[in-house]
Amino acid sequence: MLEAFRSDTRAIEGLPVRLVVALVVGVASMSVMLNMLSGVQGLATSELNVKPSPDVVEPGTHDITFTVVDHEGDPVEGATVVVKSGTAELDDVVAEKTGGDGTATATVKAELSANREDGTLVVDVKPPAGSSFVDRRENTAILVVRK
Question: Could you list the residue ranges that cross the membrane (predicted)?
């Protein structure tokens, strides 16, 4: 009986092929499922956009109004607008929260280095907590121009 098992080579040949097929089918199925899950999450998010007014200022202190809107242009309440130094300089980072009309007003004191004629302030948005909003794209920067 033991001799019968030694001469039978079918299990050795068939087992690796079956394992490879099972592995390929399993990986392909998992890939499809993960793609479906990430696609559902992507459809549920909405990109935010910030519109500063004015978006061009001279060096010095200015009140700038920011309007935060979703992809359909509707105002977004509770978003935090963050203004920080880019190629123009601020003493501190400025952060303001939007009201019910989607606007926030921030007082910024923009400065340019002695050898610069212009520069930019970077504007970011932190979406409201628990919302489906995201801010992945670059927002409109504030241009600081020396006259």
Answer: 15-37
Q: Under CATH, domain 47-145 is a member of which superfamily?
A: Immunoglobulins (2.60.40.10)
Q: Does the global pTM surpass 0.70?
A: no
Q: What span, in angstroms and rounded, lies between the C-alpha atoms of 104 and 99? A: 7
The DSSP code sequence of 95-123 is EEE--TTSEEEEEEEEB--TT-SEEEEEE
| Cα three-residue angle 138-144-120, rounded to 5 degrees | 30
- The model's pLDDT over 32-63, given as tens digits with 9 standing for 90+, comes to 887 776 655 444 578 899 999 999 999 999 99
Among 52, 99, 54, smallest CA distance to 75 is for 99
Tokens representing 50 are 């910030």
pLDDT digits (tens, 9 = 90+) for 84-106: 999 999 989 999 999 999 999 99
Distance separating alpha carbons of residues 23 and 16, to the nearest angstrom = 10
